[in-house]
Amino acid sequence: MKLRSLFLSAIVALATTSLSWAEEPLELKLQTVKVTDNIYAIIGPTTNRDKENLGNNANFGLILTDEGAILIDSGGTYKGAEMLHHSIKSITDKPVKIVINSGGQDHRWMGNSYFKALGARLIASSAAVEDQNARSTDQLIGLGILVGDEGIEGTETVYADETFDEQMTLELGGEKIEIYHTGAAHTPGDAFIWVPSQQVVFSGDIIYVQRMLGVGSMSTSSSWLEVFDALAALEPKHIVPGHGPVTTLERATKETRGYLEYVRTAVSEFMENGGTMDAISEVDLSAYSYLENHETLNGRNAQQVYSELEWE
């Protein structure tokens, strides 16, 4: 109950984040970016979930093949999935054959029912499905607060048909796709999707750029660093992050791995010097104040890392 209360409090607090896309028409809520000849990023806003983006405050991916399309993440709600499909149809008339859920956060999977009804296979790590199942009620409550009753209409909890533990390789239309779950990161089941022929990786919530990542009660910051390193070992040429613009490994290393190391080091030193949770606001975390949502998330991140370090 305590975790649920903290979750819902955070959702309500984040709802005060300024909205910059409110007046844009449907087709502009998500921006399509061509990454390579057959790979696209579909970029959502870096603000919070709201009635305008229908829970799609994240990035999604599209891989086109001769036999159809592979979609990375299905949107935050049923109507969010419809919005996402609208963007897909602006790119291609190929059907979505496979949907890969990169993790347990609502915008990674709450649109599953929409694409399943269109005949798509649903794939996720077994840890992601376990996390989705455990948090689905809280996620639906949070979405209802932020996108409203009308926005959440039609949203159902539909889980992946096919799961894997650590690695899965699939092929469609001659394109080989590798999916890796190497540990917990932002959520317990986070996975990254690698397209070796194009040197493109879809990171899901393992990588944030431009906006500050969130270390929540479901996150594990120490393992997150190891998961990042496993992704980085692929030496991707293009990274489609979970949030923010298409990026390079250099920037991702600075704004995700670098930030996590920075917070863990600062909080660890604070604890070694006798600092208590009550005084956590005294920790100087200003080096990353340029990232969006810094004022909303930085203090909470420090608190969560403190809680983790107490048990490490």
Q: What's the short version?
A:
This protein is of the alpha/beta class and 312 residues long. It is built from nine helices and twelve strands.
Write up what this structure looks like.
The structure is a single chain. With 312 residues, the chain is of the alpha/beta class. The chain is 38% helix and 21% strand. It contains 9 helices and 12 strands. It has helices spanning 2-14, 26-29, 78-89, 106-109, 112-117, 126-152, 221-232, 249-272, 294-309, and strands at residues 31-36, 39-43, 59-65, 68-72, 96-100, 121-125, 162-164, 167-172, 175-180, 192-195, 200-208, 238-243. A 7-stranded mixed sheet has the order 1-2-3-4-5-6-7. Strands 8-9-10-11-12 form a 5-stranded mixed sheet, with helices on one face. Helix 1 packs across helix 6 (126-152) and helix 7 runs antiparallel to helix 8 (249-272). It is globular and about 60 Å long. The chain starts with a helix and ends with a helix.
